[in-house]
Amino acid sequence: MNLLLQAYPLARRALFTLDAETAHDLTLRQLSRAHRLGLTRCLGPTPLAPVRVMNLDFRNPVGLAAGLDKNGACIDAFAALGFGFVEVGTVTPRAQAGNPKPRVFRLPEAEALINRLGFNNEGLDSFIRNVKASEFRRKGGVLGLNIGKNADTPMERAVEDYLISLRAVYAHADYITINISSPNTQNLRELQGKDELSLLLSELMDESRRLADANGRKVALLVKIAPDLDDAQVDVIADTVMRLGIDGVIATNTTLARDAVQHLRHGNETGGLSGRPVHQKSVAVIQRLRARAGNDLAIIGVGGILDGQDARAKLDAGADLVQLYTGLIYRGPSLIRECVRALQS
């Protein structure tokens, strides 16, 4: 195995001595620096496992989940790690600081994180500059851009924020994710309700059609949903996205449940729980979505992938693609290759 991949456990030991958010920011800076210096080329090629989903050609079915690179500042560096596609954001129309610190907590015994970041990002203008400066798409990579609402935008005007962002990112994306499932923006998950979801997605689909005509190409629209949904709620979402022509669903975001970690240090911190405890919840949502929607809906499985077997379980449940976030923090870039190999068979 490449020495750079083997070095991650040692680097993780040092990073885990730091506050979680400080370590995250440091990692992004160092990853960008390593890429600029050409060091990521030493990782070597990722095994090929091409797949076509949503009329897009993915180099492999393992992608980076939104949230690790909120401002789109490290697209090329993450791509160089071997991801088949990269999703960045969540971006909001205006820059916002997010929730007060500390707001990210490690739960290493559970291979999990809790975060209550709250869509902290530099806003659309900075985000678009970063996206345009990256080379990944120009070299054939698939890039997803994830959009949300500002925390101070009233819920009754949420659609306006999503429309602003949709118009801004459309020309620069291969697919766009509508994030309505973060638990860290007050009342955001209300948009998963039947009437609210239908209204929001209808407006966004209408605007998407206009943008497709203006840009001469159709950009896929996806919705990211929570793991904390019962079967009836998942059915409503599946029926709504199919009726409106939404291209896909990302299942799932972080959970509010604490049953698996409440006995651990930081286990009762508020925010969204990610990592291993979310895996089975995500699998259950994927299974229900696939059963309800049939084969015409693209599903990206995310949540608690810590090894190749977890990635395989997502596809066996009905996902077409998978994404990594917390697993990457605990396992490092070798996890990408392990998952690609697991999905080749």
Q: What does this protein structure show overall?
A:
This protein is α/β, with parallel strands linked by helices. Helix content is 39%, strand content 17%. The protein has twelve helices and 13 strands. It has helices at 3-6, 8-15, 20-36, 75-80, 124-133, 158-169, 194-215, 231-244, 279-293, 308-317, 326-331, 334-344; strands at residues 51-53, 56-58, 62-64, 85-91, 104-107, 112-115, 142-147, 175-179, 220-225, 248-251, 272-275, 298-302, 321-324. The chain has an eight-stranded parallel barrel, surrounded by four helices. A three-stranded antiparallel beta sheet has the order 5-6-11, with no helix packed on it. A hairpin with a 2-residue loop joins strand 1 (51-53) and strand 2 (56-58). Helix 8 (231-244) packs across helix 9, helix 9 (279-293) runs parallel beside helix 10 (308-317) and helix 10 (308-317) packs across helix 12 (334-344). The protein is globular, with a radius of gyration of 18 Å. The model has no long low-confidence stretch (mean pLDDT 94).
What distinguishing features does this structure have?
TIM Barrel; three-stranded antiparallel beta sheet; 13 strands; 39% helix; alpha/beta; 12 helices; globular
